[in-house]
Amino acid sequence: MIKTVRRFYNYFLHPEREFVRRLRRLLGFTPAYLNVFKLAFQHKSNNGDTAKEDKPYGGQNNERLEFLGDAVLGTIVAEYLYKKYPLGDEGFLTKMRSKIVKRNSLNTIGDNMGLDELLSTYNNVRIAKSMLGNAVEALVGAIYVERGYKKTTQFVVRQMLRNYVDIEHLETFDDNYKSQLLEHCQKNGSKVDYSVVKRFKQDKRDRFKVAVNVDGRRVAVGEDFNKKSAEQIASKRALVDMGIKVSR
Predict the structure, then answer these.
(1) Taking residues 108-120, what's their average pLDDT?
(2) What is the C-alpha to C-alpha distance for residues 236 and 220, in angstroms, rounded to an integer?
(3) Tens digit of pLDDT for each residue in 178-196?
(4) What are phi and psi of 102, to 5 degrees?
(5) Same domain for 90 and 191
(6) Active site residue ranges
């Protein structure tokens, strides 16, 4: 009853009812606990170096919801794949789950869901693509807090996986360029290692410049806000430079 009253108020009377209605179009339901969903779009980079009392939400951000959503999303996707591929072995299921929940995939899902517009509402910094994947996980966490596991599963499967993930394509698609490079070099007796060339701030966030070396020679460099992502970019460039065909 209380949740019903809250949802009615949020949709028809709340000062931020336009935001509520945007959420409803995205989620398929009206949130009762609006502050939880607002927090889901509050990225840590927005807090900057100001005093805690002057920061949005008292310095809180979506990292806790992101942590929760990451765990819930991983479980839901694992269950979905377990049921979809009754003959799939552990290795296949693990790779498929990784392809779906990895950062680049979640960034793309967040982009297709239009989360950049919601992030722009509650952040005063430039919206980087890597923030979209964080928001996806935080949003899943917010839905779980309000609606529990069963309803969150329905949202993830119906609204995310079926609309924005091409499962059949992922079965044969391999964009783990670091793994491809390591496998190629191992076959040829070469040694691969990665090193952080530079770590700096951009848009109030850490950014990494990573080099990949083959037999002690620098082959390529990649740069991103996430170290692992920078390694993947560097690996892909190395594969191209070495004339090795990569997945597009």
Answers:
(1) 93
(2) 9
(3) 989 999 999 999 999 999 9
(4) -70, 165
(5) no
(6) 70, 137
